[in-house]
Design goal:
By secondary structure, the protein is α+β, with helices and mostly antiparallel strands. The chain contains three helices and two strands. Helix 2 links the parallel strand 1 and strand 2. The longest helix is centred in the middle third of the chain and has 18 residues. The two termini are 23 Å apart.
């Protein structure tokens, strides 16, 4: 969607270094389940301790909470039908 205030970028290195370089004070993370929450909570607390950057958690909808990048990669690698699990804008060549 066209939202000028939001950017999606890739980077190498630590997330807090990327945030500092781009004057970002918040990290937005999606949470699917308890496992995600515990993992992300530890990272969020570390980031806050090292840099004062805050993390905001958003819960996924129940109908998509089972989808993971690992599942989608597995389907793509083995010629499975991944199209129901990703947005229509995702194209695999």
């Amino acid at each position: 969607k066209n939202e000028s205030r939001i950017k999606v970028e890739s980077y190498d290195g630590l997330t807090i270094d990327f945030c500092k370089k781009n004057d970002a004070n918040f990290i937005v993370r999606g949470i699917r389940n308890n496992g995600d929450f515990e993992f992300e909570k530890a990272i969020a607390r570390t980031n806050r301790k090292l840099s004062k950057i805050e993390t905001v958690f958003l819960l996924t909808s129940a109908k998509t909470s089972f989808i993971s990048s690992g599942i989608v990669r597995e389907l793509i690698t083995n010629n499975g039908d991944y199209k129901l699990l990703v947005p229509k804008s995702v194209k695999i060549d």
